[in-house]
Write a structure and sequence with these properties.
The protein has 324 residues and is α/β, with parallel strands linked by helices. 43% of the residues lie in helices and 13% in strands.
Length: 324
């Protein structure tokens, strides 16, 4: 279940990472048919919280609010890798996890979880600059510095800054389905899939790119994934030479046409596995892989799972549906 969400504020908090959590869980999107989260900011030290750089955030809510949260999010703040944290907060986090709540950290917010003992024996991550410090300070934690996020349910840790977006969308997708996660991602206009060192169940939405020719080609390609598509075909539709198109494509998307197409085809297959009863062979054809063997190969390579295993894990998690 994911209804009651709390973000914990400590002094010298960083507003971007807090904003990521607020953007995903703190905006009422019920008019768009999306779930509503009872979202609250909680002060862990005092009602007035300093934010970097130089403004304050006030909230009337204290740590008692954590008793009702389904998800507790810990954004980053200055010097989290060296400072001490309020014992009352650490105890509240332990009690929340004991009763079944999930906890998510962004960047060096992982140090708060380490101080609470919640990373002991668990895989986790943080910003790459502080991965060694996290390992040294909490030697029982299994730190993986080369990933965007690690889901060790009920503990979810993410790397620096925008990796928090990946982690939040992953959690929404896991609990409420890809339709909900993708709708939120598109509303946020997040960038296309960023390659990391791990296989993640993460939606790969297309951003609103600035280059009209590239954007129109991307829309066309998404609608014709079942066809064989070459860079020559795409560049012709954009009225560019293949070399010019490839350069503009990478500038706008951060990746190559081949990798983008592959990611979109995997995503198309994910949606079909979640929402239809079609065979893997038919899904492979509809998503442009040609046959089930090619689809299985790319699923294992991209997501570290098979199509059938993915379908068993995510089947039936439709838009707006809470799962337990």
């Amino acid at each position: 279940m994911l209804k009651n969400v709390v973000a914990v504020l400590l002094q010298d908090i960083h507003p971007f990472e807090l904003g990521v959590i607020c953007e995903v869980f703190g905006i009422d999107r019920r008019e768009e048919g999306l779930p509503f989260y009872d979202f609250t900011l909680v002060a862990a030290e005092s009602a007035s919280v300093r934010a970097v750089p130089g403004f304050t955030i006030s909230t009337p809510h204290g740590l008692d609010r954590l008793e009702y949260a389904d998800l507790i999010a810990i954004p980053v703040g200055d010097d989290f890798h060296t400072r001490d944290f309020p014992p009352a907060l650490l105890e509240a986090l332990r009690q929340a996890v004991a009763r079944g709540a999930r906890v998510l950290s962004v960047c060096v917010g992982a140090f708060v979880l380490g101080a609470a003992g919640l990373l002991d024996g668990r895989r986790c991550t943080t910003h790459w600059r502080y991965a060694d410090a996290l390992s040294e300070r909490y030697p029982k934690a299994q730190v993986e510095p080369g990933v965007l996020y690690v889901d060790e349910d009920p503990i979810l840790t993410s790397a620096g800054t925008s990796a928090g977006i990946d982690a939040c969308l992953h959690l929404v997708r896991k609990l409420q389905g890809s339709d909900v996660a993708n709708a939120i991602a598109r509303r946020m206009v997040v960038p296309p899939h960023r390659e990391g060192g791990q296989a993640q169940y993460i939606e790969r939405p297309v951003a609103h790119y600035g280059e009209d020719g590239v954007r129109e080609v991307l829309v066309w390609a998404e609608e014709h994934l079942e066809q064989e598509i070459s860079i020559e075909q795409l560049s012709a539709r954009a009225c560019m030479s293949p070399r010019t198109f490839a350069r503009h494509f990478r500038t706008e998307t951060g990746t190559t046409p081949y990798r983008w197409l592959l990611a979109q085809r995997v995503l198309s297959a994910q949606r079909l596995l979640e929402n239809t009863d079609e065979t893997v062979e038919m899904i492979a054809a509809c998503s442009g892989f040609g046959n089930a063997a090619a689809l299985r190969h790319q699923f294992v390579r991209s997501l570290n799972t098979t199509p059938n295993a993915y379908r068993r894990a995510f089947r039936g998690r439709s838009s707006g549906t809470d799962t337990h």
